Amino acid sequence: MDRLEKKLSDMFEPVIESMDYELVCVEMTGSGNGTILRVYIDAEKGITVKDCQAVSYQLSGILEVEDPLQSQYALEISSPGLDRPLVKPEHFKQFIGELVKIRSTEAVLGRKNFKGILESFDGEYLCVAVDNEVYEIPFEIIEKANLVPVLDS
Predict the structure, then answer these.
(1) What is the Cα–Cα distance from 95 to 88, expressed in whole angstroms?
(2) Burial class of 2 by CB neighbour count within 10 A (0 to 12, 13 to 18, 19+)
(3) What is the pLDDT of residues 41-62, one digit of tens each?
(4) CA–CA dist 94, 43 (Å, integer)
(5) Alpha-carbon distance 22 to 84, whole Å?
(6) Which residues 6+ apart lie within 8 Å of 27 measured at CB?
(7) Three-class secondary structure of residue 136 per DSSP
């Protein structure tokens, strides 16, 4: 997460939590007039279009007043989906035993990309089983992590 995404997360989280949602993450994609500010939210009951509209209304007000972005952007509010991003330590603890895809900024035993079962997380290291080998990945070097949807046929 870059500094702007962190600043936006810190700005949005109290408002989103006060509405009984969880802020999963904030991401910026594109550039110039094609910039998208995407905010992923979740709730125990799931997320509906009305939930996204309500959060969008609140965050639009904050963005109007605070004006943290220097360029034009489109605001998108979304559920995390089946390939939910894993960002916060509590996300990794919540999804132990699930299939995950992780990209690290530094190589761990010669790899930067991992797709396997998240076996454990102690707050500092993730253990991921990939092809009958367990990799211990420091949390601080995780660039991107997502659940991998497993669709039963």
Answers:
(1) 11
(2) exposed
(3) 999 999 999 999 999 999 999 9
(4) 14
(5) 13
(6) 5, 37, 38, 40, 85
(7) strand
Q: Which of 10, 80, 87, 73 is nearest to 42 (CA)?
A: 80
Whether 1 shows a pLDDT value over 70: the answer reads no
Structural tokens at position 60: 């639009």
Contact 144, 103 (CB under 8 A): yes
SS3 per-residue string spanning 3-35: HHHHHHHHHHHHHHHHCCCEEEEEEEECCHHHC
The mean of the pLDDT values for the chain is 92
Match 């965050």 to its residue by tokens. Answer: 59
Say if CB 16 and CB 10 are below 8 A apart: no
Which domains, from first to last, does the chain contain?
A: 3-78 (3.30.300.70), 89-147 (2.30.30.100)
